[in-house]
Design a protein that fits this description.
single chain, 223 residues, mainly alpha, Helicase, Ruva Protein, domain 3, Cyclin A, domain 1, 2 domains, globular, GTPase activator activity, Rab-GAP_TBC_sf, Growth hormone-regulated TBC protein 1, small GTPase binding, Rab_GAP_TBC_domain
Length: 223
């Protein structure tokens, strides 16, 4: 995964001096030793690489990665990725509550949430939304916890509800979800961040944790 991490970024090219691929390798190997239950999982390279670009510091990136994986997003990057799968199902339940017409469309065409939002969750919107917007989201993520991911996802869906509902088949829905992460809504990061705290309405951690418990039990029962 090293060569696939930000290949277009000049600082991650092998010709760079210093080459951040070496720093990324050190952080990921150190974390693998630090948290043997997780080790390394695909997606962690983008998270760690982004932290390195932001902090420009190997040790700070390591501890921020530890906070994300160990505290803020537990089980997202474990071998079974149960936390990640659970939260994708939780989003589906939240959409039923907040944007029922979109949930009904997804169900009618048999589109699983993992097909359209897995990269949102596993990469924490890296390479999905503009850099400035992602940085603002991550600030809130470290400060307020994982419910920020749901606020961002719900805002994207709610703001583009009419556009999504134009879809008439399975591939069309998938294409709509790719398109809603582009445009002025997400490039104007200040107004977008205001929207994520107003558009989804009330969203407590108690509600999210209750849904997580239900969705996790459902996934475990399915094997």
């Amino acid at each position: 995964d090293m060569n696939r991490t930000f290949p277009d970024n000049i600082k991650f090219r092998k010709t760079a001096d210093p080459c951040l691929q070496h720093t990324l390798y050190n952080v990921l190997v150190a974390y693998g030793h630090h948290n043997k239950a997780v080790g390394y999982c695909q997606g962690m390279n983008f998270i760690a690489g982004y932290l390195i670009l932001i902090t420009k510091n190997e040790e700070e990136s390591f501890w921020l990665l530890d906070a994300l994986i160990g505290r803020i997003l537990p089980d997202y990057y474990s071998p079974a990725m149960l936390g990640l799968k659970t939260d994708q199902e939780v989003l589906g339940e939240l959409v039923k509550m907040k944007v029922p017409a979109v949930a009904e469309l997804m169900e009618r065409h048999g589109v699983m949430w993992t097909l359209v939002v897995s990269r949102w969750f596993i990469c924490l919107f890296i390479d999905i939304l503009p850099v400035e917007t992602v940085l603002r989201i991550w600030d809130c993520l470290f400060y307020e916890g994982s419910k920020i991911i749901f606020r961002v996802a719900l805002t994207l869906i709610k703001q583009h509800q009419a556009f999504i509902l134009e879809a008439t088949n399975f591939p069309d829905i998938c294409d709509k979800f790719k398109q809603i992460t582009k445009g002025t809504l997400v490039t104007e990061c200040h107004s977008f961040m205001q929207k994520i705290f107003t558009d989804p309405g009330s969203l407590s951690m108690a509600t999210i944790n209750k849904l997580r418990e239900t969705c996790r039990e459902k996934l475990l029962s399915q094997g």
